[in-house]
Amino acid sequence: MKMEPILPFAERTCPRLSVVVPCFNEEAVLLMLEARLAAACREQVGEDYEIVLVNDGSTDRTWPLICVLAERNPRVLGVDLSRNHGHQLAVTAGLQVCRGDLIMMIDADLQDPPELLGAMIAKIDAGADVVYGQRVARHGESRFKRGTASLFYKLLNRLSEQDIPVDTGDFRLMTRRVVDQLNAMPERYRFIRGMVSWIGFEQVALPYERAPRAAGETHYPLRRMVRLALDAITSFSTVPLRMASHLGMLTGLAGFAMLSWAIWRWFEEGTIIGWTSTIAVMLIMGSIQLIILGVFGDYLGRLYIESKGRPLFIVREVRSQSRAAQRGAI
Ligand code: UDP
Ligand code: MG
To answer: Which InterPro entries does the record match to this protein (predicted)?
Structure first.
């Protein structure tokens, strides 16, 4: 069977600006989002924009709503993924579909103000390739979330050779050459903000205050945050793999010290230290070995999954007023 390229949009023209929005169960904010985004875009680039709304396998009325929006506004393009692929892959899908010279990524929940678009474009005009929003304040986020986020960025920057700016999300404006590079990166464990900073070119921060969610609930409970953190660390660092030798040396030294102490006591007092200490050492050694094996296993597992080379996402349907786009994609 001949393989069709995923989204042949040759017929579509390339707008000046594309906005990519991943949407997972966002029915409560979609209308507001489209209104505010469209207004912000219109103010900056007139009608020369497109909004790509990616439905990431929502279980509520998000997709029908996106279809309505696409019908109403010719600048809206809806992309329906076959199932929930996760935030980073939904964004990836949007980035592959969009055609703009400038590309903005923004969450659907309006925590990041679309009105910053003007300031971002100004920085691009001044020579930047990436303008990332940097949160100076995060309203409506728990202390726990802020604390863990800051700890995570510290750890990540410690472990990885790549400097990843702290307190940034995926809210950013990028030039076409950055997005083309991003699209050419095939890995499936994607930590997009890290990948963008790896790409290089001129990257500048735009400080802003992060608002609370406009409506709905966060889809990043602790479990998902941990998963994203693991993706980030294993994609950008091999330090954990090397942890084995360091830990091994450390426990080796400790074992040697204990052994010397036991021999010394044997000579001095004629007593052999009982089995408690033996068991303790065995437990410590055993657990360290298991931890290290786990770290190896994690990297190995990722290698295995990457090696399959499966597509990153699967598109069920694309909706827009342009018929050519529709036919091409299905
Ligand atoms: N999202 C997605 N797929 C998912 C989870 C989230 O596309 O599996 C989208 C979601 O609709 C939102 C963005 O990713 O636009 C960020 O999610 P959320 O606001 O829940 O995360 P938080 O801001 O709390 O970290
Ligand atoms: Mg959010």
So the answer is: Glyco_trans_2-like (IPR001173), Glycosyltransferase_2 (IPR050256), Nucleotide-diphossugar_trans (IPR029044)
